[in-house]
Each structure stands twice: as C-alpha cells, then as structure tokens.
Target: Aminotransferase
Amino acid sequence: MFSKKISNISPSFTIGISTKVKELKNSGIDILNLSIGEPDFLTPENAKNAAIEAIHNNITKYDAAAGNKEFRKAIIDKLKKENNLEYDIDQIVISNGAKHAITNTLIALLNPEDEVIIPKPYWVSYPEMVKLTGGVPIFVDTKKENNFKLTKEELIKSITNKTKAIFITNPSNPTGAVYTKEELIEIANICVENKIFILADEIYERILYVDNFTSIASLSKDIYNYTITINGLSKSAAMTGWRLGYTACRKDLAKIISSIQGHLVSHPCTVSQAAGKEALISCTNDTKKMLEGYTKRRNLAIKMFNKIDEIDIIQPDGAFYIFMDISKIKKNVNFKDSFSIEVCNVLLDKFKLALVPGIAFGNDDFLRMSYAADINDVEEGINRIAKYIETVKK
Model:
C-alpha cells in the first residue's frame, strides 16, 4: 500500500532518545540529557534582531528558490575568507538545514541502486537519506587506532562500478576526529580518479580545537569539481531551530539542486535567512565565545575519562562529542540484541543519564556523549558513567 522505500527506513535513535527523555521529564523524573547534538548556547542577539527586523519590514514573501541573494553573497564571502574557496552566486543553494541540503544533493546525484560509501562510524541519518533517495549505502569499517578516519586503502577496497558518491564528515560526528590536509588529498584524489562525488559535510568546521582544518574543495580544481560542500549555522551559531543549511558546488549541479528545491519546498524561510545572513556577518565573536565554552568542557571530559580504566575515548579535535569505547565491560553485561542499547537503557533507567548507543552510528561497542551542556552537567554525567562502571565490575 505504501512506498517500498519506507520499509527499509530505520527510526532515528537520537530523536527516539530525545522523545523518551521528554516523556520522563514530563512525568516528573529529572534526567541529565547528554545525548542531543545541539548547542546549549542561545542564538546570538544580532541574528535574532535581524529576524525581528525582517518581520517588521515584511520580508515574508516568496524569494528565489536557491535562497536570498544577499545571504548567498555572505556565504560566498565566508567561504573565501575562511575556507580559501571561490564561488559565484549561482553555485550556492540555501536549504532548510544541512539535512535538507544533503537530501537535495542525493536526489540530484543518484539513480536507482547507485552506491554511496559511508565510513563507519557515521552520522545516524546518512544511510536513511541514501535509501530514501533510491541509493544503496555501502558501509566501510575504519580503525579505532586511526581515530576512525577513512584511509586510502579502505576507500579503494569499497569502490565498485556502481559507486557514485561518498560522505566525508569533517570534523566527525560522532568521534570529533579531524582529517589532516594530507589525509584528505589521498582520499579526494582517488574519488576524482573514479569520478566519485564527495559530500563534504563540514557543519562542525568552526568548532575546532586544532589548527589544521582543510575544506576538501580547496585542495585542487579537479577535487573542487567533484565536491559538494555542505554546511550551515545550526552548530556554529546555535541556530538549530532556524533550519538553515547550504551547498556549494559546481554550477551545473547547483542548478539542478536549486530546481529540485524549488519544486519541493519553494525556498527556505525568508525570516530565518535574514537571521542567518546577520550571523555570518556580525556574530563571529559569539561563535568564538561558544568555542571557548566547548573547549573547557572538552578538556574536563578528557581528563575525567582518562581516569576511568575501563573506558577508552577518541580524542575529539572538533565538534562537541566524546565517543567512548566501553567494550572492556562487555563480558559483564547481559544483553539480547545490542550491547550499547542495553548500557544506555541502564544508564537512563538507573542513573538518569541519557547518552546515544554506538549502534546508532554503526559501532555497538561505543557510546556517544555530548558536552554541549553546562560544565557542571558534563562533570556529573561522567561521574554517573563512572558509578555505572563500578557496578558492572562487581
């Protein structure tokens, strides 16, 4: 009766956890929620005021399918200044969040049964987006000792005559790992040689604790032509609810993406775009202050986890997550289907702490904790994890 594509779609673990946490809180149970990938900071005042001004100035009518011209110009300026990338205005398409930008791109690229390479661990929505747009997700195992970053050798083994695209998330969600320029060049050159499009998800690029961030599209002209840069303001400017993302890519593909968006949703919200433009233009200091807060929490989390012998973590060089290996306690945990789900259920039910099971990202031996929260909550959350570990050890 319904579309066959729907039968292959899995529910979002992160949304499911958030829903359960809200239900528990509504019933009067106090839950410490370190599961959600959302900044705990508020949208900068300048951005909010720009939206209010847009409403009063009646910026509430239809606009261009690819997005407001002035906002696209601001994105072009940002990409040139921060990422060493040159784009014309008809190469930028603003969408309703980075998820929408990715979906538009997949619709534009994929024919039925085209394969999309997804390195593990991966952001939870990538596989479902690929399946919904008619493609086939191809998962590639990466190694913990390399901070789960894809290598040239792992990529080569995964390529077939059906490979159409690959996701490279940099910095990574869930690990926080950041690729070096040299690592990206090796991967990107193989993609160019095999005519594989690169979906460069760089949504966390401004939340960085090292100085070596490189935008993939900046590596060479050939790589530029095969790269779709995906970004937005949800993470860097604490604008998750405003739903603003964008793609930057070569002109022929951008034209197709814009056409698809025009038919599906017309264009992004005009009021949100006014806020987004202002965020890019005048809210850099707000972003820096947010980064200072994340840095303090990150350093605290690393220090505390290093004292828990049963847990290994991937050192986060970007984003705001700790991806923790809990496999050392696996033999002491009774579970039926998923080890990480069982641990998360116990942490939620008995320790009132919400984390995300690693199986959501393709690795059942791990949990993800967000430190986009008050530093005292981060400290308390890790203390509760340590207490759980002690109960399992007994």
About this structure: The longest helix spans residues 284-305. The chain has two domains: 4-42+285-393, 45-282.
